[in-house]
Amino acid sequence: MQTIKLKTPVSILSSASVAGVKEGLGPLKNFYDKVLEDAEWGEKTWEKTESKMQTFAVTKALEKANLKPEDMNYIFAGDLLNQCIASSFGLRNLEIPFFGLYGACSTMAESTSLASITVSSGYADYAVAVTSSHFCTAERQYRQPLEYGGQRPPSAQWTVTGSGAMVLGTGKSPYITHITTGKIVDMGINDANNMGAAMAPAAIDTLTAHFKDTGRTPDFYDLIVTGDLGKIGREIVIEKMLEKGYDMRKNYNDCGCMVFDLEKQDMHAGGSGCGCIAITLCGFIMEKIKSGELKNVLFAGTGALLSPTSTLQGETIPGIAHAVAISREVD
Amino acid sequence: MTNKEYIDYVNKKTPNSKILKNTVLAFIIGGHICCVGQAFSDFYRIMFNLSVEDAKTAVPITMVFLGALFTGLNLYNKLARYAGAGTIVPITGFANSIVSPAMEFKREGLVLGLGAKMFTVAGPVLVYGITASVIVGLIYYFIGGMM
Amino acid sequence: MAYLGSFIVGGILCAIAQILIDKTKLTPARILVLYVVAGTVLGALGLYDIIERVGHAGATVPLMGFGNTLAKGVMKAVNEKGLIGVFTGGITAAAGGITASILFGFLIALIFTPKDKY
């Protein structure tokens, strides 16, 4: 069994998101708490900007839940930078007991999973889950300098600038009910410009496990989203899940395809990065759950567990996906 | 499904680059950059009476300057999005590959950032270019005389 | 005529590199290395002179021309100085371009800061 049903359903007390300029021009622009006006947000380095986004997301989420940092028992956070500095630097002044995570772009689901477990098991009254990514910090970490004149292949994805945070506790709707923890899946893709295809098998593996373990079918959910598979990965998931007997054609989407207008914004295969699912979930999806348009949602953060070193050494790309089920009502 | 089957499936699924369009753009833009070089060559020879040999040195210096300046002005990468190899192959692209990491890593310091990272992309060109020239020189020295 | 030659020869050199990038997944850095080494070899064999006669700046501006300069320089230095020329010839001939790259690279990087891409 990869899936646990939480003994006490965990409440999502609040969520908050901050998005970058490009994201603020995308289709979900009205659902972010804040949209940046430039890449720097008054900071000297983009690493500082990314940290500031995490600080903002957590502070804003706490404010919405009417809680203070000292009420929090734990914060689970991670990002894409070496040694996860966006999280540790962004959260150091909040003085909340801190667990730093690395799950690449699956971090939102990983942090939410762990935070839910601590709350549900009674070890925490409140816990926060947060993650972030920034286009400029990710480019210099994984790819080329910003001003380098290169062409992106059609399968390339664009790292989302943004951060999303969720405050978890108990008592009120909506609830986190199930957690499916993914295994590392590597099907031998080694093209770092085709992350969607590298991560899709992990998403398929986790989603299949979720449906098998819970006995649910895809139509139980009003919306199933994956983190940042982009256009190619999304098509792979739909086709392969259908082959396995799970029809997700109607209610499945990928945050990488939702966060940008792929054609108008010339986004090639779509968005990526920890922030991709974080801002889509903490903005758009939570808003739709609150309004009642969405009752049951399954979100699966997807991560490519590569590093620039492993890419240079010609290694294949291991993928991971963690799924979290959210419901407006529990029995 | 084996890894190999999956990789084949992914390769079928992944859209190819638009090679025809990319190649035509690379040809046109790359060709134009070379014409700019030719214009400078003529300009130096006519206006400054430079010899053909000196013009051959002055033109790359000028093109390197332009490549560096356009990179600084945030224009080179915009052109490169369309031009592809058309902006990589000319020596302006060599300048771009030097300036872009130097700018990018300035925040890590002037010595270990800007200075050290300057040749992260262009370094290999010098390593292999100079090594090749040494090999050419050695061959030429030892057996060139016999030919 | 020099301009037509420049345009066509320079354009073809770029087009070949583009096809290599799109078809073979060779990264641009590898293409540049390939070009400079190819230029050195063609220069050593005297073949690059032919390309240059037709292509003018279309042959000298692409990085292959840089390789040609290295080869020509090393051969000239070997003629003049013998074995020591093997070590000095290449860089001496390419000194203008290399120094310009470092100097302008340094100055531009000091003045300008990279911008986000929207």
Please characterize this protein's 3D structure.
The complex is a heterotrimer of chains A (331), B (147) and C (118). Chain A is of the alpha/beta class and 331 residues long. Chain A is 34% helix and 24% strand. Chain A has helices at 21-24, 46-64, 85-91, 107-120, 135-142, 195-214, 230-243, 255-258, 274-290, 308-312; strands at 3-19, 34-35, 74-78, 98-101, 127-133, 158-159, 162-169, 175-180, 223-226, 252-254, 271-272, 296-304, 319-327. In chain A, strand 3 (74-78), helix 3 and strand 4 form a beta-alpha-beta unit. The model of chain A has no long low-confidence stretch (mean pLDDT 96). Chain B has 147 residues and is mainly alpha-helical. Chain B has one domain. Chain B is built from 8 helices and no strands. Chain B has helices spanning 3-13, 19-47, 52-72, 76-83, 85-88, 91-104, 110-117, 123-143. Chain C has one domain (2-111). Helices cover 86% and strands 0% of the residues of chain C. Chain C contains 6 helices and no strands. The longest helix of chain C has 29 residues, at 83-111. Classes of the chains: A alpha/beta (331), B mainly alpha (147), C mainly alpha (118). Chains in contact: A-B, A-C, B-C. At the B-C interface, helix 2, helix 3, helix 5, helix 6 and helix 8 of B face helix 1, helix 2, helix 4, helix 5 and helix 6 of C.
Count every beta strand of chain A, where a strand is a DSSP E run of 2 or more residues.
13
- What is the subunit arrangement here? heterotrimer
- Characterize the main sheet of chain A: 11 strands, mixed
What portion of residues of chain A is helical?
25-40%
Please report which band the strand proportion of chain C falls in: under 5%, 5-15%, 15-25%, 25-35%, 35-45% or over 45%.
under 5%
Indicate the overall shape of chain A.
globular
